[in-house]
Amino acid sequence: MKHSTRKQEMDIFCKRLHLNFQRYCKEHQLSEELDNFTTYLIDQELIDNHTIRQYAILELFKDLYPENKHRKTHTVELLANRFNLTPRSIWNVLRKGGKG
Questions:
Q1: b/e map of 7-19 (b: 16 or more CB within 10 Å)?
Q2: pLDDT the model gives residue 5
Q3: Is the pTM of this model over 0.85?
Q4: Selected residue with higher pLDDT from 3 and 44
Q5: Rounded CA gap, 62 and 60, in Å?
Q6: Domain boundaries, the chain
Q7: In 3D, which of 18, 43, 39 has the Cα closest to residue 30?
Q8: Which of 3, 13, 22, 80 can bridge 87 by disulfide, Cβ–Cβ 3.0-4.6 Å?
Q9: Is the pLDDT of residue 94 over 70?
């Protein structure tokens, strides 16, 4: 029963999200492209600033870590400077994201 409820919720969520995105694009005279979809999700507060920052940090870490000869501390310091955060905050994001 739990699995079918979850499927039903996902189906409703996806269908409504798509319909509302189409309406949003029409209202704002936008094309239905990925960049506009991302903007829509942020505008509708379906993705908060905290999540965006965490995602950006984790993704940049993936790029910078090998470039910095796999030195985590150096990479964390670079990210801290880039995002104007403390190194401890960056470490916390990496731990939560499974990179720490």
A1: eeeeeeeeeeeee
A2: 73
A3: no
A4: 44
A5: 5
A6: 2-43, 49-96
A7: 39
A8: 80
A9: yes
